[in-house]
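Protein data:
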Amino acid sequence: MQQPLKARVRNGRLVLDEPTDLPEGIEVELVFADGEELGDEERRELYGALLEGSDELDAGQGEELTAVIAELEART
């Protein structure tokens, strides 16, 4: 599973702290990591979905990241 990427703002631009192997030109949605916009119920739902996804990966039901990216790129 891909680890979250961290970036810093430098001269008004986001700069990743480390190199990435993401495909050139891919669009990435950024959100603030503080999570303050989530209410308690939304946070519970998010954690539940993350746990469910983790269980699916452990059971071998996940998809390769490259396949997911290719599918998303095909939609645009």
